[in-house]
Amino acid sequence: MLTEQSSQAVEPGRDGWLRHRRKRFALWIAAGEGIIVAVSPDLTKWTVVALAALAALVWMLGRNSNSGVLRSILWIFAVSELLAALLVLFAVFFKWLVILGLIAFAVIGLAILYFDRR
Hints:
With 118 residues, the protein is mainly α. It contains three helices and no strands.
């Protein structure tokens, strides 16, 4: 069966529909979770990392399920949580890069002032 949105064949039933759209769902969920974590003081970065570990474990346990819908839902859960954890790690890493850059600029500025011999 072909959909109006694309020319790729989609398997019939709920599983085919979900499998066809699971990457899109995972990306949107991860983006939404990243925004919520960025603006919410209650949800910490460690909560996202713990959920990602839990999601990976649940996916490992349920990936051989007979239900295609369950496999797709677990895949979406695992991928969205792992992407959200990557967003958190990038935010922490780049925050430290910015701090180190500011420290380097301050040290260079102080060195220029110190070695200025006018």
